Structure formats: C-alpha cells, structure tokens
C-alpha cells in the first residue's frame, strides 16, 4: 500500500483494514513471532546472500538482483501488458470534489465533506457515483451533501456484483425475495 492509502485507513477515529475495510481492534504485539523473525535465516532470491528475515525487507529494497528476480516473475505471470490493468475504474478510493484531498474510502469521503464542506453550495460531481457503471461523470448534484448522506450510507460493493448484468441481478433479487417469505 502507498502511504496516503494507509494513512486514510489508520485515521484515529476509525482505523480499518486496508483490504476489506473492516474496523481494526486494538491488539498486542506478537513477541514470539518477532523473535522468530529475528532468528530465522533466509537467502535472497536475487543475490543468494544469507540474512535474517528481519533484514530481508531492507535488503530487497536495495538489491538490484532481487528487483530483477521480481520483474521476471511479474513478466511470467502477466498475460496482458501492465498498462491495460488501469482500464478498470477505481471504486475503492475517491477524491474530494471540493478540495485537492484524495484517497478517501466512501465513509471517509462522507465524513470529510460533512466536517469541512457542509456549507459549500457549489454543484459538484459525486466521485463515488461517477465510478459506478451506471454513473454519469458529468452530472452535478444540486445538493451534494444531501446526496452523500442519502445515497452513500453504505458501500455499494457490499451489495453489488459489478460483473453481473442488470437482468441477472433482478432475477437473483426476485428469487431471494420468494425464498425469504
């Protein structure tokens, strides 16, 4: 993860997991695991130098042979060129439409806008909606704050399968509603 994304996940009010966004609970240090990392020896896959696991991360960052080893692995498993992977819209982090801050998750964007922009009447495009398959990247909400509070109380990815078409989703909903009775 990059630093801005991690910092957004570790906000003091609600630290969340960088992958699933679930709330993190305070824990204690795993001292036995730390000791094991400091006493277990390994070998660099690039230059074959032996070292303790605790030193491997800093070594790997500086070892050009290790970097080449990683790039060869990436090339071996990548079927399409890396630049094609950005064709998918980012539906996990969003910029604030009012200011230059970036990398908010959905809850973070709502909280940020309520705290800093609640009195801003400027019509803006909702970055969350614009990233959705049905979203219009040119639609400017007349009351963005109300829109945020009504439409984005929950995360879409909890309830939506972006790869399913609308007819399949409607059929699934109807089937589930019949089973729930």
UniProtKB/TrEMBL annotation:
UniProt catalytic activity: S-ubiquitinyl-[E2 ubiquitin-conjugating enzyme]-L-cysteine + [acceptor protein]-L-lysine = [E2 ubiquitin-conjugating enzyme]-L-cysteine + N(6)-ubiquitinyl-[acceptor protein]-L-lysine
EC number: 2.3.2.27
InterPro entries: Di19_Zn-bd, RNF_E3_ubiq-protein_ligase, ZF_C2HC_RNF, Znf_RING/FYVE/PHD
Pfam family, one: zf-Di19
Pathway terms, separated by semicolons: Protein modification; protein ubiquitination
GO MF terms held by the record: ubiquitin protein ligase activity
Domain of life of the native organism: Eukaryota
Residues of the C2HC RNF-type domain: 44-63
UniProtKB keywords: Transferase, Ubl conjugation pathway
Annotated GO biological process: protein polyubiquitination; ubiquitin-dependent protein catabolic process
Name of the protein: RING-type E3 ubiquitin transferase
